[in-house]
Amino acid sequence: MLKLIDIHCHLFDYASTVDLTDIDNDRQIIYVSTVLKPEEIATHVGKAIAFWFMGLHPQAVGLDDKFKRKYVDHIVDFDPIGIGEIGLDKNYPDLDKQIELLEMQLKIAKFYKLPTLYHLVGHEYEFIKIHKKWKLPKMKIMHGFNSSSEVFEELNKLGFYFSIGNRLLNNPKKREVLEAILQTKRFFLESDAPYDGGLDEVIKIAVKLKNNYEISMDEIKHILNKNFDDMVEGKFGYSEKK
């Protein structure tokens, strides 16, 4: 049975209330978590969460440079499925330092051929310029996309995948952008739990898409599962679930 996939959530925040050893047994959802701090690593490795990204968010820009370098250099030691959530954010200081942190992580992603997951608030065209330079060969996912059609077109040209969450779905001004994303079939769904919904949020998002756009639940699941299998290079076994 094909499941829905939550491409971006923060399972560490549920460690005290949810049995994370059973998280992969959810009958409806496959969860992809995100690790942003050293204290979150043991929970993911120790609890054997199957799928997770690891990276330094732009909010880490002010941390000690030696800490940032050590953290980034050791990401691959923990065997996450990709690097994220990384990016740029106008709400944090020092754009040059943010770019330095981002490119530090892009270098690792490119060398090890890892997928990447992005946080982007403002600085869109600087971000696009950076990716035109780096030309990452692996899947690039824009988490919580809620930008303009012009930014969508530029990212689309670069082969980005787009993660659909409540910010985009509940923004009536972005209906055309959402329709364009659906047409590419390069999309995921996300809860960003617990910050923008609960652990069942992608079910609600999928139902809204089914009810308000010309796409069935079966098609949503097939697209999500194929894209996820492409990201993990066949380890998920989508071809066996068609």
Describe the structure.
- This protein is α/β, with parallel strands linked by helices.
- It has a single domain (4-232), classed as TIM Barrel.
- Helix content is 40%, strand content 17%.
- The chain contains nine helices and eight strands.
- It has helices spanning 38-46, 65-73, 95-112, 124-134, 149-157, 166-169, 175-184, 201-212, 217-231, and strands at residues 4-9, 29-35, 52-54, 82-89, 116-121, 140-142, 161-164, 187-189.
- An eight-stranded parallel sheet has the order 1-2-3-4-5-6-7-8.
- β4 (82-89), α3 and β5 (116-121) form a beta-alpha-beta unit.
- The longest helix has 18 residues, at 95-112.
- It is globular.
- 38% of the residues are buried.
- The model has no long low-confidence stretch (mean pLDDT 92).
Outline:
The protein is of the alpha/beta class and 242 residues long.
Uncertain regions: pLDDT < 50 for 5+ in a row? none
What oligomeric state is this? single chain
Compute the number of structural domains.
Answer: 1
- Helicity, as a percent range: 40-55%
What percent strand? 15-25%
Strand segment count: 8
The spatial strand order of the largest sheet comes to: 1-2-3-4-5-6-7-8
Describe the biggest sheet? 8 strands, parallel
* Rough outline: globular
Tell me the span between the first and last alpha carbons. 9 Å
What series of H and E elements makes up the topology? EEHEHEHEHEHEHHEHH
* Backbone structural class: alpha/beta
**DSSP helical segment count:** 9
Provide mean pLDDT, rounded.
92
CATH architectural type: Alpha-Beta Barrel
CATH superfamily: Metal-dependent hydrolases
- CATH top level is Alpha Beta
Could you tell me the CATH topology label: TIM Barrel
Radius of gyration: 17 Å
